[in-house]
Amino acid sequence: MPSANNKMGGYDFYKKAVAYQWKERDSFAINSILKGQIPSFYKKFTKVHTKIVNDKNEIIRATYFVAPDYLMVGNNKDWARIPLTPMAAQKIADSLHCFLPTTKMVEEIYTHSKVQLEPIPMYAFRDSTITMWQHHLMIEGLRKGKRGLISGIKKDVVLSNKFNEQGKINRVAIYGWHQLNGTPIQPLYAGHINSYVDYSHGIRLVMDKIKVNGKWVHYTSILRDPLLRKLLTNEQDPIIVRY
Questions:
Q1: What is the pTM of this model?
Q2: In terms of CB atoms within 10 Å, which end of the chain has fewer, N or C?
């Protein structure tokens, strides 16, 4: 990832973004992140291990690498998580050689997480920029400085065929927001148009190269392979690989 050219913090981002509609906020986030406005600790991706067994009873093992937290902007002293549309998330993911997770991966990331926090629902002005900022601050109050791979704080924007079931491709699929008992508040859902984003949405980046039985494989090749895709998804049909 690129290095930051200035010291814009999370507070500064939201102070400016509060006057924006979603398109402007997306553009501001994309430009900020691609200029390197990301805290250095966010760049330390974490290993997640998974495996399947083929019809010969052979174990196929894979390791993918996930961002330690949901997408954020700022620096090490002042940063903030930022919900985005899937279009903006895809642009950022592409530029950083990453992709978005599936529901299966969200479950595995939660299991691997060192920090699991109770979700914090909010009910008023859900899609406002101010609510997004307030929700970030509430998460930080609950986190109390705990470090490590974190889950349970956002609904993930995920790759899924769910919206294809409705014959509509201009949708966003979301899933997760796990409670402490491991049960997600949000089942897989694709009812929102893809321009909708609220405080509860989170963008988890995953490196686009995955180690399968010791060899690096691009995630698109895995998701398009009838057997290997089971490493990353529980959906039966070939899954979409990007927004």
A1: 0.95
A2: N
